Structure formats: structure tokens, C-alpha cells
Amino acid sequence: MPTFPPLDEILANAHVVALPMKVKFRGVLVREVMVFSGPAGWAEFSPFVEYDDVESARWMASALEAGWLGHPAPVRDWVPVNATVPAVSAEQVPQVLANFDGAQTVKVKVAEAGQSLREDAARVGAVRHLLPEAKIRIDANGGWDVDQAVQALRLLSVFGLEYAEQPVASIAEMAAVRRAVNGSVLIAADESVRKATDPLAVARAGAADLLVIKAAPLGGVRRALEIVAEAGLPAVVSSALDSSVGISTGLALAAALPELPYACGLGTVSLMAGDISEPSLVAEDGGMHPREVVANPELLELFAAPAERRDWWMERLRRCHALL
Predict the structure, then answer these.
(1) Could you tell me if 321 and 7 are in contact, meaning their C-beta atoms sit under 8 angstroms apart?
(2) At the fourth CATH level, which superfamily is domain 7-70+298-323?
(3) Range in 14-18, 22-26, 95-99, 109-113 the model is least confident about
(4) Are 4 and 321 in contact (CB under 8 A)?
């Protein structure tokens, strides 16, 4: 078991910021994150506000690994990165894609609550029209049932899909969709890995062709590397709408994987209108070089969260630390 630093040591170096978004993503226009510095560098603790303490404690373990232990040695110094298109209208797609430099792969959000498959098709079609040679992947965040997913994948496959991420919620449903599409669209597991009690269950069930791996929800870079090795499936590294500090941990994971066959979902800082480091960790010419990120004191002050939100995060940190 790792030895975690005492709570007072973390609290003494903790900052809470509220970063504005350029477009709504995951239903939010302001992303709150907590960052703190440790002997190994800056680290981010940013589980979404609706996550419970048990789930959030894994994010804390990841942050403490980054800040107090540091990251494992890399095997590559450049990581390809995809652009991300939230569930915007088709007319907004050019504006979103303009934020990403040289992306050759695009992830498009689909199955947004209150939206139709027609809107999804228009959004994916707009991406294909603008980038005829790009690889396109879609992410439903478990928003369809099996029948809806099969119908949607058959329709959207005309645009040429690299894969479909988490089309349905449960592992059993994922397996059913994978059987129904029979290899015409690859199926990627995200929530079925990072939110599961057993992150390897989806691989054992034959419910996915590849895994989407996020360091923070799995408890850190080292644990994520273990899961990929045990699962025996290709992996895509993704982020959770992090600041540049959090993205640096995702890049450390991508840089340490023995194999990296897919572009990674680590470009979401480009969707933010504010950040805590300068320069921000964003893609150039379709990729990023892993590097250490240091928070800028002036930006920490500029984007400091209101006092009541800071208190909320500090109390959350205390509860999660107690669970480690």
C-alpha cells in the first residue's frame, strides 16, 4: 500500500479554481478543479461534483501519486491527440474544430439527453465534411439502449467510424451491441472500466475491442498501466476535462504505455477559456510532448473559486483523504 502524505500537508498547498469553458461540455460552462503542489510536482484533484466520496477517493490517490511519487519513466516523447467536439449544433462544429491545431482524429459526443439521432448525424457529418481524411470516433457516454445503439451505429457508420465509445451503460449491453454490429464498428469501453468495481470485467466478458483509460478515476498512472496489461486490449488514454496540470498526468500515462495505437483524448484544455499554467498544455500539429506543468500564481488568483466553493472542495478533500 502506498504511503499518503498527511492531510495538513496537502491542505497547506491546495488551490481551488473555476475555469470558464468556451462551449458547454458535460453540461458545464465552468469547470472547478483543485490543484496542489507536492515534492514531485503539481497535481490535480478534480472528480466531477456529482461523484460520491468513494469514487472520488481514487482521483485523490492519483493526485497524490503525481504530487508525491511522480510518474513512471516514459517510452515515447510525443503523443498524438484527438480533437473533441461536444454535443453542439452542426453549425458550431467549425468553431469548435478551430481550437485544435492539426488534429487528424476527432471524437464527437453523441446521445446527449434531449437531442435526436438526426442531430448526432448532422454533427458527425459536419466533421466529416470539414475533415474528409480524419479518423472519427463517437462517444455516447452510455446514453443509448441496445436497440438505439445498434440503429445509431448502422446509421453513423456511413461516415466511417474509428470506433464507438461506451454506446450503452452496462457490460452485458456492451457485449450485446458488439455481437450485433459484428465488427462493422469497433466498441470501446470507458465508463465500464473507470466506474466499475472490477475494471477488468469488460475485457473478460468480451464486451469491448479496446479500452479508454483515464489515470485519475483508476487511482493513478501505475494502476492504469496494470489494468491495461491485465486486460490485454489496446488502450486509448483520455482526460476528464482537466486543467493543464491534470492533462500532464494523462500524458504521463500515454507516454508510459508499451503500445499506443490510437490518438489520445487529452486535448480538452483547448475547450477552456482559462487555465492555470502558461503556456497551456494543448496540442500542436496534432499531438503533445509530455512535460511537467507548473501552476502560475497569478492565474491561480485570477481564476480562484468563490470562498464557499473553496470550502466545499476542502471538505471534500478531507473526506476523501480519510478513505485512502
Answers:
(1) yes
(2) Enolase-like, N-terminal domain (3.30.390.10)
(3) 22-26
(4) yes
Q: Which residue reads 470485467 in cell numbers?
A: 201
Positions annotated as catalytic residues are 109, 214
pLDDT of residue 1: 46
Pair 177, 184: CB distance under 8 Å: no
d(CA 245, CA 35): 8
Domain ranges of the chain: 7-70+298-323, 79-295
Helices (H), the chain: 7-11, 53-64, 93-97, 117-130, 146-156, 171-181, 191-194, 201-204, 221-231, 244-256, 297-302, 307-323
Burial environment of residue 294 by CB neighbours within 10 A (0 to 12, 13 to 18, 19 or more) = middle
The CATH architecture to which 79-295 belongs is Alpha-Beta Barrel (3.20)
